[in-house]
Amino acid sequence: MISILKFIxxxxxxxxFISVLFAGSLFNNKIRKGFKDRKNLESKIKNTVENxxxxxKRIWFHSSSMGEFEQAKPIIEKIKKTYDVYIIVSFxxxxxxxxxxxxxxxxxxTYIPLDTPKRCSxxxxxxxxxxxxxxxxxxxxxxxxxxxxxxxxxxLVDATLRRNxxxxxxxxxxxxxxIYGSLHKILTVSDDDKKNFLEFNLTEEKVKTVGDTxxxxxxxxxxxxxxxxLIDENLFEGKTVIVMGSSWESDxxxxxxxxxxxxxxxxxxxxxxxxxxxxxQHLEKLENQVGKEVGSIRxxxxxxxxxxxxxIIDSIGxxxxxxxxxxxxxxxxxxxxxxxxxxxxxxxxxxxxxxxxIQNSQESLALIEExxxxxxxxxxxxxxxxxxxxxxxxxxxxxxxxxxxYVKSHIGATxxxxxxIIGVI
Length: 425
What we know:
Shape: elongated
CATH class of the largest domain: Alpha Beta
Helix content: 40-55%
CATH superfamily of the largest domain: 3-Deoxy-D-manno-octulosonic-acid transferase, N-terminal domain
Number of domains: 2
Radius of gyration: 23 Å
């Protein structure tokens, strides 16, 4: 049966996938760039690794994109600080590759090859690693099979698997039995994830719950962020600050009417909006929208601040630092496809608000269960919930403490994963 499934994958599913990618590259700049960057991939890798000291161990970390790579960083950095090894980092997406090309703890940053047996075999021959680490979910069948054939230990870490995953149905389950069985270890985020993986005829020894490195990463970054001092804290003296992070227009259309109304009765209220995509069109639309109600200023012009009540962030990469100044946080995405990272505000001890699309966010669901997360369904909800939070400081701080304790109680996955990796080098 497995031979038939491999045949179907290699001669039907994989060619279709590659053809769809190629067709997509004709219309999508991101996909097109991925194909362009992959040209001469083997020679690029060879030029780098031929300068490696052959006596030193090599560890390969693969992530689909930037989000998954953020989870790999605390593990990589701990290894680099304690062991003299080479770190090879790969991505599937062009955005992950481009944004990480200068990552200081990686000795080689590259793409994972398209998943044909020959490409995978050549890639592994070139990088010649001692262990492979796949982040969260992005594992490719032929690459896993080639690793097993070459007896290179492969670990899937920060692993999650939903109870109703399509991987658990029919022929897909049979194929994944073989894929997961070819891995050395699967290190899961939760006991529920472990239980779901065990349905693939895996042993308790192979599947282990260790937690989620996102908690470690966000905690580490928060310590650094506090020292960045992006904004003069005196600017907000006597004010109550709401940060709307990673917002889309669908989030803003619900939140802004409620906040405009609250600002009429709460003169101390300040709003910081950090759009998920701060392009010119979005920024100008926001400025036109808020200009009719209250004054606004872009973050890049903050030196000219004159008590504007709305600050619009026109740069990227600073959201975590902005939550440091907040009293209440709203995390965007919950009125679009899925809520973004709720751990970033939670680590600062904030009540965290979000839209209703949270089914794929275990952290949002956990914050609701703990008592510090609040779902907003419409502008009326937003007004009611935010009014209570800004009017009752004791209540607000109580919820914030719950958020902070939730994050701190889940720190520690990095150390456990580190020990598993070092144990097989």
